[in-house]
Structure formats: C-alpha cells, structure tokens
Amino acid sequence: MPIEMKDSDNGLGLIVTGRGILTENEYIDSYKKHLSQNSDKYKQYRYCLNDWTAVTKAAVSSQAIDQIAQLCRDAAKINP
To answer: How many CB atoms lie under 10 A from the CB of residue 22?
Structure first.
C-alpha cells in the first residue's frame, strides 16, 4: 500500500508516509483503517508528521479530501 501509518515515540506521535501512485480509495481506506482503532489511542497523540516526498502521482478528488477531513475532525473531537 502506498500509505503507511505508524506510531512514533511510544505512541505520542503518528508518522504518515506516502510513496508511488496514490489513489483516492487507498487514501481514504488508510485513514479509515487507522482512525477506526481504539479512541484511547488518539488521546495520547501529540503530533502527526506527513511525508509525501516519495509520492509520484496523486489521483485524489476534492470529495475524497472532504471525507478524509471529516475523519480527522472526528478524531480531533477525541484529542483536540
């Protein structure tokens, strides 16, 4: 999968790394999978780093970005 999400600093942070061709479905599915975990996990996050330098092409619509933004807003309710 072109998106990898992993915890950093014993769960204090999240690192999101993209590579290759990024499709809309892969983008949404990655965030849904990660954000559907136990909500207690999000309470301890203090930062999120995104590295898109290895993405060669992104075929993502504005509607997909809106969906991902909503997922992130929902997570932010748990950890503002």
So the answer is: 21
For 3, other C-beta atoms within 10 Å of its C-beta total: 21
User: What would the pLDDT profile of 29-41 be if each residue is shown by its tens digit?
Assistant: 988 888 777 777 7
Above 90 in pLDDT, residue 17? yes
Degrees, nearest 5: CA angle 77-43-80: 35
Alpha carbon distance 20, 48 (integer Å): 21
DSSP state of 80: -
Report DSSP letters for 26-58, one per residue.
HHHHHHHHHHTS-HHHHHT--EEEEEEEEEEEE
